[in-house]
Amino acid sequence: MNDFLYSIPAEVIFGELKEKTLIKYLNKYKASKVLLIYGKNSIKKNGLYELITSALKSSEIDFYELAGVNPNPDITDVARGCELVTSHKIDLLLAVGGGSTIDCAKAIACSSGSDTDPWETLMSRPRLKTAIPIGVVLTTAATGSEMNANYVISNRKTQEKVAFNQPVLKPSFVFADPKYTFGISKYQTASGASDILAHLLEQYFDSHDDDGVTDRMIEGVMQSVLHYTPVALNEPTNYEARSNLMWASSLALSTLFFCGKKTGGDWGSHTIEHQISAIYDIAHGAGLAIVFPNTLKYFLQKDIQENLSLIKFHNLAVNVFHLNPADFKNEESLANECINLFTEFFKSINMPTTLREVNITDEHFGEMARKSQLYKSIGKYHLLDADAVLKILNMSLQSNFY
Fold first, then answer.
1. At CA 4, angle to CA 161 and CA 273, rounded to 5?
2. Between the N and C ends of the chain, which has fewer C-beta atoms within 10 Å?
3. Helices then strands, each counted (H, E), the chain
């Protein structure tokens, strides 16, 4: 196991959201002017908007609203937020929703103090020493953005989608009340579960070694996602299922599973998916359900060509899917069945598993492969240059697992 430093400054208040507790945390961070950041109308339909605004009014905190944040937050959302922060001297950002609103809040915190265009500011990747505090009221189980410093922003004009990281942008507090996920659609629930699994797999495939305790934890959370997702889809108000998915989502990208690892994960599949959704605006989790099994297939082919250990595939097959190695002629066939079972799971929850299913052709593959190399070749388990990305995209057009 490698040495590590583990710290998550966010305080997580998991369970029923109470007005007095929300006020307590707003007062703790001396919030006098709050920017409320949310998507469209869901928080008004489920009563969350009324609860939060009542709390703000009762504590005489001035608040302003950035509404209508896009599902894949765009730089135009960030620019609107920056204007509000500057004009009203905002001292706390309160993101209400899922990864989109949280990522938007992080980007606003990063770029609001700059005189340059927000996209230029983000792309310059400044290293901030301080930033406006961010609070979160979580309403989805998907990205885990509430527990880390990462954020992804799109620029629809240039058809780019880029991931950023600023350590000081980790949220300060997170309210996670599972009942606010009851109204999430089946598609959003399934897409969120796919995102969680992808986060876990990215960290699992960081090297060709068994990483002991950390890998066992990842496998355990995977099993929970595989178990509780169908329950949540069939019983949308099942608190046990929703609470387990919500906590799995937060844990999956809390950096806990970096501990003891050689790297912070592979993240090649995420970079490839970002190129797809930058152009086609497909849901992130749905894109990952397509790309990730094909990336694993590519990994397996490379492992066999280079005579490398298949221990990661072996452990997933045995510990997550409970396959018996004795039932397979060799480790390669065991690994293939493991990949197939991930694909079957995505199919079972009505996620797409090929690009053709979502009407995506190879028209922009060259551009996607090129843009995936924006800073350098991607991937840690195997290096993915532009040619490798192009191969994975072509594999994703139509499933060839069977």
1. 20
2. C
3. 15, 8
